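hey so u asked for the seq, here:
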Amino acid sequence: MSATAIPTAASVADAVARLSPEGRAFIDGAYVDALSGETFDCVSPIDGSVIAQVAACDQADVDRAVKGARAAFEKGAWSKASPAKRKHTLIRFAELIREHADELALLETIDMGKPIADSRQIDIPGAAKTINFYGECADKVSDEIAPTDPSAVAMVVREPLGVIGAVVPWNFPLLMAAWKLGPALATGNSVVLKPAEQSPLTAIRIAQLAVDAGIPAGVLQVVPGFGETAGQAIGLHMDVDMVAFTGSTEVGKYFMRYSGESNLKRVSLECGGKTPHIILPDYPDLDKAAEAVAWGIFFNQGEVCNAGSRLLVHEGIRDDFIARVAKVAQGIQPGNPLDQGTKMGAMVDATQMERVLGYIEAGKADGATVAMGGSRVMQDTGGCFIEPTIFADVTNDMKIAQEEIFGPVLSAITFSEVDEAVRIANDTVYGLAGALWTRDVSTAHKVARDIKAGVVWVNCFDAGDITTPFGGFKQSGFGRDKSMHAMEKYTDLKLIWLQLD
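ran it, structure tokens below
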């Protein structure tokens, strides 16, 4: 398909007719069927319709992809290319993503269910920016000369690991793929990318754009399939040097086990979260804070790893603040994701919708009060839509406060003292992110240090850009995406000691 802009589709069927989505794997520079010939239905959560048949790759396909990736790596057309060449190629790759932005945004929306405005304005531009950033970084990483005796030269050099297995989630399909592809490719690795089975279409599409940009065949392989087949095969493969994973903590633990059962491959994990959003009564603009809290949980239908799902609000402002959040949420209601004005889309599939509804029922059963929402909506569309939901009277031992829901469900918990808020914030197995709203700079510094999380925002939420690292503590995983720090995990340090006398 050309890079000509694609107008907004009136329906999923209209979009499919315009896009003709590709569902085959991409191996060694070409689209291919799974060796078994098996496929699975790619279903749009907007109306339940089948939008493509996708190759159900398994161990045989992963073997083929890894073999091709290894051959490309050893050949050296990419791994031994000059950093400047990799830089210019990745920048061209980013340009092609931008040129095909309308096509990719439409694919993302019909595949995953997010609003088309978010796909166009956030996801696709963010993916292009990520690839461009790491292209620019490719020739900015220098080796070192250690301070040795003059009789020797000790060079500390970084080398690419080899073949990277990138396993990415369904909530930001292309953006999360770019977070892995950018630094892995910039440092000279080959990548076998497995997109989530719920949303594989943009990953499959950009594989051809990568080749068009000049990335050699075999350097980027895409193997769609299920986690228990293709994902497991990547985790257990003896010739995969590293797995970079974003997804649930449960599946992240599988990859740790696969590493030990295979070749002790490196593993980088960005897993679940249960982000606390702490509101102190001294903050002077509670409407601003309420706006951030509402968008922090209801953006992307709540399907965000660092979503602010726990609202920790001081008891003195509880009722007033919850009412402010609910007022904002009234303007973030589910609608047709293909409508440019829609602010909340569909859950990714029926399984996830039922999972979220199950948590809502668990909250009710545990004694929490539904302050807003709590139901499936727009059932006549055949889609998977849930309205924004706010629970009050939540205690931190409840299921909805402890487990990652990954949906538009906010749990409000009250506290009386700052130390109590910090204790509640840290009372979770997760440690991905946290947020605090206060006008007191001393409190801000102390609480930001005391919250056990990889990212802490003060008087804002979800701020940052590609230049800043992202990742978690505790069972939210380890390793960092974004920023130049991400390049470190895709390389290994080698010492070359040259004796001169």
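The mean pLDDT is 97. Residues 430 and 470 are 14 Å apart (CA to CA).
lmk if thats what u needed
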